[in-house]
Design goal:
single chain, about 500 residues, alpha/beta, Rossmann fold, six-stranded mixed beta sheet, two-stranded antiparallel sheet, 19 helices, about 50% helix, elongated
Length: about 500
């Protein structure tokens, strides 16, 4: 739950009252808006904090004369394509309503939905390349799926205008770390109320509600009507459904706690021990029971104890990495990647049949993603059995819509013939398939430059007959290096 104002006397509204505080902020926003021609970008996630910032900005600009509303305000939302479905649908509906209301009210507010490049998407990296589910020491998802799309948009604004101002719903009350970050930014303010964005040159940051508590946010949202036509009570209801006890009272005075700590994010997130918001939604609302398979898959991805059975003993480079005599495992194996694809498609089929009317067309993995995964499996991993269309057709009961343009591909039958020829020697089979496919890749080229390097790289990758041999040889090499460091003169005589 959020902080109780009666216990935490840090409410921004205590001294001046909510009415005067909001009026003061609106004047501040208007002054900042009119002071220059630098376009604004508002980060909008659909949550309470970003909603409060957008609502304050909308109210402030709406009170300006029409001839003063000249500077564009871009509202950006990053959809990772694995967002919690209920929240994703909420944001999409908000964007549509914003677009209509901004036009009707003659406001220069423009919503944008940003998505990651295909190469950066979650399933492309996890199922395609075999990246293991994100964890604290390998958090590969955030920069690819969240930061890159928004930074690309902001850089484009800077290229076109020379500078941009980013409005965020960051608050000191969110965490000690966030408070420390905001304090550091305050020390570096260039213009009053504006701080430099360390990662994006010529981009300034404005955080109008940084001193608000959780209760301040809800008090504002409940007492001031949403100006683009959505109801903030529905937003409150969404947070209420995502709290464990299902309680989220209206904030009516300083003794009423709020439900401000509910967190929404990617439904596949394995950076937390449990997805408490999705668990609570399923528990509190019978109409959301269809989300149970999503939670089950998320928990399965987060079960890192199964890594030994799921991941290759080699890194993507083919190298072996030992840590305290234990092997640091690499990407998911072919079998595991095919399993994750099967699970995702099975859940998509289940939701289409059993989900609510609002979500029965939910696409968990797009054809663009599938095409890229197929390309990676065929051309980067040399898995020419081309299993993806077969998995797709077996589960969804319809023909895979895309075809491969490369007529030189080895066929599924070739794969199985080679498998039979290699017998039970999986290591030999893997080596032969990859060497054969590398040869195919360079077939027909007038100059086959690079083929020897590619073949050598593959031979190095498959140099071990199995995990046991890889570990034994790596330990001996490690011991040899340590001995060389301790007795360099003796090693020269060997």
């Amino acid at each position: 739950m959020g902080n109780d104002i009666s216990e935490n006397r840090n409410s921004a509204f205590i001294e001046r009252g909510i009415g005067n505080s909001i009026k003061g902020l609106i004047r501040e926003i208007q002054e900042l808006y009119l002071i220059d021609e630098v376009p604004w970008v508002i980060g909008y996630s659909g949550g309470k904090d970003s909603t409060a910032v957008l609502q304050l900005t909308w109210m402030a600009i709406d009170k300006l004369p029409p001839d003063k509303r000249l500077k564009p305000i871009h509202v950006i939302s990053t959809d990772t394509l694995v967002e919690q479905p209920v929240v994703s649908a909420w944001v999409d509906a908000s964007h549509k309503q914003m677009e209509k209301s901004a036009t009707d009210q003659d406001l220069p507010i423009i919503p944008h939905k940003l998505i990651p490049d295909v190469k950066d998407r979650y399933w492309v990296n996890l199922i395609g390349k075999g990246y293991p589910a994100p964890r604290k020491l390998f958090r590969w998802c955030t920069s690819r799926m969240k930061i890159n799309p928004s930074n690309t948009f902001i850089r484009q604004m800077v290229r076109e205008n020379g500078e941009t101002i980013l409005l965020l719903g960051s608050r000191k009350a969110e965490s000690t770390r966030r408070a420390r970050t905001l304090a550091q930014h305050a020390l570096k303010q260039i213009k009053e109320k504006l701080s430099p964005n360390a990662g994006l040159p010529n981009s300034l940051v404005y955080t109008p509600i940084e001193n608000w508590s959780n209760d301040d946010v809800w008090l504002f949202l409940m007492q001031y009507k949403n100006p683009w036509g959505f109801t903030n009570k529905s937003l409150l209801g969404m947070y209420q459904g995502a709290t464990a006890d299902g309680e989220c009272p209206l904030v009516i005075d300083s003794s009423t706690p709020s439900c401000g700590d509910s967190r929404f994010g990617c439904w596949v997130c394995t950076l937390v021990d449990k997805d408490r918001s999705m668990e609570a939604m399923i528990k509190n609302d019978e109409e959301k029971v269809w989300m149970s398979p999503l939670l089950e898959l998320r928990n399965e991805l987060a079960d890192f104890s199964e890594d030994k059975n799921r991941r290759d003993y080699r890194r993507m480079s083919g190298k072996i990495h030992l840590f305290h005599d234990s092997i640091v495992r690499g990407p998911y194996t072919k079998k595991t990647r095919e399993y994750w694809l099967t699970r995702v498609l099975e859940i998509q089929k289940f939701i289409a049949k059993e989900g609510s009317d609002d979500f029965n067309n939910l696409e968990l993995i797009s054809i663009d993603d599938l095409d890229e995964i197929r390309r990676i499996w065929l051309y980067e991993k040399h898995e020419f059995d081309d299993s993806l269309p077969t998995i797709y057709e077996n589960i969804l009961g319809k023909k895979y819509p895309s075809i491969i343009s490369d007529d030189n591909l080895l066929q599924n039958e070739d794969w199985h013939i080679l498998k039979e020829a290699c017998g039970d020697d999986d290591s030999l089979f893997e080596l032969q398939t990859k060497l054969l496919d590398i040869e195919r890749e360079y077939r027909g080229m007038s100059r086959r430059a690079g083929i020897y390097s590619a073949l050598e790289k593959q031979l190095i990758f498959n140099q071990f007959s199995g995990e046991k041999e890889a570990i034994d040889i790596s330990r001996k090499e490690h011991d040899r290096r340590q001995l060389a460091e301790k007795h360099p003169t003796d090693m020269k005589l060997i």
